[in-house]
Every structure is written in C-alpha cells, then in structure tokens.
Prior knowledge:
By secondary structure, the chain is mostly beta strands. The protein is built from five helices and 38 strands. The strands form nine sheets. Strands 6, 7, 8, 9, 10, 11, 14 and 15 form an eight-stranded antiparallel β-sheet that branches. A hairpin with a 3-residue loop joins strand 37 and strand 38. The protein is globular and about 65 Å long. The two termini are 27 Å apart.
Amino acid sequence: MWLAVLSQAQEVHFVDITSKAGIKFTHNNGAFGKKWLPETMGPGCAFIDYDNDGYPDILLINGDDFPGHHHLGATTPKLYHNNGNGTFTDVTEKAGLAIPMFGLGVAIGDYDNDGYDDIFISALGQSHLFHNNGNGTFTDVTKAAGLWGPNEFSTSAAWVDYDRDGKLDLVVANYVQWTEQTDLFCTLDGTHKSYCTPESYKGTSVRLWHSLSGGKFEDATQKSGLGDPTSKSLGIAILDYNDDGWPDILIANDTQPNKLYVNKKDGTFEERGVPAGIGFSDDGVARAGMGVDAADYDRSGHPSVIIANFANQMLSLYHNEGNGLFVDEAPQSEVGRATLVTLGFGCFFFDYDNDSWADIFVADGHIEDAIEKVQKRVSYAEPPHLFRNLGGGKFEEVTEKMGKAFAAPRVARGAAYADIDNDGFLDILETTNAGAAFLFHNEGGTNHSVRLKLVGTKSNRDGIGAVVRVVSNGGKDTQSKMLRSGSSYLSQNELVLTFGLAAQETADSIEIHWPSGQTDTLVNVRSGQTITVEEGKGTVDARAYKPSLFRSN
C-alpha cells in the first residue's frame, strides 16, 4: 500500500503556466547601482479571493524607484483576477490598487467582518491598508483606520485575533533602522560596494495593531509586551505552540535571536524564544532567519516550525516536543543537508501530493549577484527545494522530479500556495527579486482531498486561528491544521484549508475548533469537494472539484 502511494506521488510535477495564464509582471527593486539595503528584500505575493467567486486571485507586491533615481518609473502592486477559465486578467487599475509605493509584504484578512477580504501591504516608508468594498474595488483606508504615521522598514505581516474578541488584529514585522542618508559602505572583496548585513544597522520593534470598533486600530505594541528595539524581523508565523487555544506569535529575526511570544490570555505576551529552544541554532548562533511557517508535520498533535536561513546556515526544522521545548531536527535530516549552502526566503508546509503528510517548499536566491566570486559553492540564482514527507519525521528532496522549469535556478523571494482551479491540488506562486513572478500548476496527482472554507460568526469572519482536525482511514490517520494569515516570507497563502486523504474517499470526521471556543463536528465527509462551514451551523455549501483548465496534458 505504501509503495503504491509513493509511486503515485512520484508522478506529480509542477508546470510553469505563468505566460499561458496571462501573468505579466516584473518586480522593481529600485536598484540604480548604489546597492542600498532595501533593494535585496522583496517582493511578496498573495492569493486572495477578493470577489468571493470561489477562485483565488493573485496579488503581486512591487517596489518603486527611489526618489531622485529614476529607473523603471512609478510601479504599483498588481492584482490579477482569476477568470475561472485557465486565465487571469490584470484588474489593478479597476480595483483602485494602482498606488505607487515601495511595497514589500502582504497580509490578507477580513478585518471588519463584512464578508470580503481586505489587503494590508507593508512597505519601506508608509504601509497601506486597503478596504474591500465588495464591488471589485478597494479603498485606501490607512489614515481612517489609524495606521497612518509610522514610516518604517516593514516586512512580513499577519492578521491574528490575539485577544479572541472576534476582530482581527495586525502584527507587522520591521527590519532595521535604514535611510538613504544612513546607508553604509560594505564590501565583499575590499573594493566594490556590497549589501551590508543587518548587523551594520540598529534593530527595531515589531508593531502590533489592536482592532477597535468601527474599523479603527490602536498601537498596542508596548502594552502587549511585543516592544523590542533589538529585533530585526523578516518572518511571522501564528501558532498555538502550547495547545492552550490562544494564538502565539513567532518572529524570525535576521542575526538576532528568533522570538516566540506566548499569549498570556490577558492582552499581553511573554517572550520565550530562547528557553523554548527556538532562539538560536544548536551551537548558540543567532542565524539570519527569513521566512517561517508552522505545522504538525509528524501528526504529533503539536505545531512544529521551519525557518529559512542564510547561505551556509541550513533550514531550521524545529520539532515541537509537546513539553514547551523545540529540538532542531535539520542537522540529522535531509532537510538540513540539502539546504546547507542555499539561501532560503519563502517557505511553507503543504501537502503537494495529497498523501496526508505535510511536505516542505523553500524558495531560494542569494542577495549578492557577485557571490560566486568569493564563495564558490554559493550561487546568486538557486533552485527551490521541495521535500516530500515520508512519515516518521523523515523527508526526501524531490525537486528535480517536479520538472525542469520548476527546478530552474531563480533569485526567489516570496512564495505562496493555493488551489487556483479547484481541482483539489495545491499550486505554487513564486516571486523573484528584480524579475518575474512564476505560477506553477500541480499536475499528475491521483490522491484524494477535501477542502474547507470557514465562515466565522462569533469568531472573525475568515475563521483565522481556527484549528481543524481531520480523522480518516478508519481512525488511523489524524491531521491538524490552523487557518492562518502570514507565514512564508512577505506572502499570504489562500484562506482555505486542503486536507490530503491519500487513497481514502471519505474523511471519517472533521472537527473545527473556532477561536470563540465553539466546536463544530462533521462526519463521513466525501472527498473531491470544497465545503463551506459556518460557525455553529456546520456545512452551508459544498462544491465538487472541477477538471482543471490549466492542465497541460
């Protein structure tokens, strides 16, 4: 039986459908020859079903020219509408999102619980909040919402209802204190300017925006205990690390210890990164953390963590021991050996072959285009990593089996996943620095799956923070996933949960544990469909999967 599943999984491959789908995008990192630090960072990307038609649309974040240094001219984010017929259409102007900014990251969430997902874009300078008007357009409500003012070097962001009051709050990572005037001269070869490491600059705190009534926010950074000016933050993952039903916040820091903010259930957090074993590497080094994600990859019932790090540092695979401690399994794993010299940014757990085990994807790419001259083993453009979960805590790299286009070297940054065509298999969106975006369609799989879209009532409308447990195979297989905003690097996955069921055609039971404390249970749920579950009501809609219009064969 296991050999049959393995054989099926090896038939899966990812096809580059970017051009065929109508995605035409080039990232502007503002570079003009001076090698300013922000040029190396972006861009992020997101999936958002902004018009609620059941097909995830694509949002690509863009940078901009630096003032006085014209390169590409004014560039803006790009919103591509999923037409449901195998193509996307650029609707940026029509949607009201054609606003120039040096954008970096993005987080998607329905902050006002009106049934339409809104957009937060983090930026170098002023970040922006866009309200979804429900008619295909967005309005910039940054000032009206109380978010205007901080001009920071903001990176990843995540929506989270940290006080479980039914309204989404917003946590925003900030990198370092950098300005054009304070840019420093650093060099790799002693002569030519290179990008400085964050160690050359002072850190800055993450920022927490607490949701008030009327769509307004207050800065709760200090009173919540998240204020820490030493942080140099790039990635955010929300997880319930101690299984107490309250969302905790994990921050991936660059050359500073990673932070684990544990929710104290009273509006405040306690930082436990170092005592939990997640702050440093095994040898006591604060690594250069980029992207981050959390998942119960070994079905232990506890969320473990991956953090993408700099070249020569390998990916962190922190296993949650269930007793408040994490142990980095990467040094003894294929995951560590394969990622030793690559530089990871976007990363996430997802079940690409629907065998019911969480796999790992990592988007790679260096920041220095001349790195090969000083480090022969390290490349500027690098292939991604795809690790198949074999069960028992073991992974194997299968990148080269996924197709030449997928395994090609890129200077990648953001990455996200979604089922773009409702065929039950997860597809991948990847961005590159100063380059194109790539959309990879998942093809060749035969395993079953079931997808869940959540609608909160007492909880936030998206159900962000809900934990879903799926039991299948006569009770032998139990999966657990949290619906979360954020994770990866500067990016946002779709707000729908996909559970692979391998050869099983039915899930024995599905339990949804909502942030409000409500639990809904479904039994004998057929695979091959996306079901919408409303808090307190159960299934309110079910849509069968469709044959893919993106499929190349």
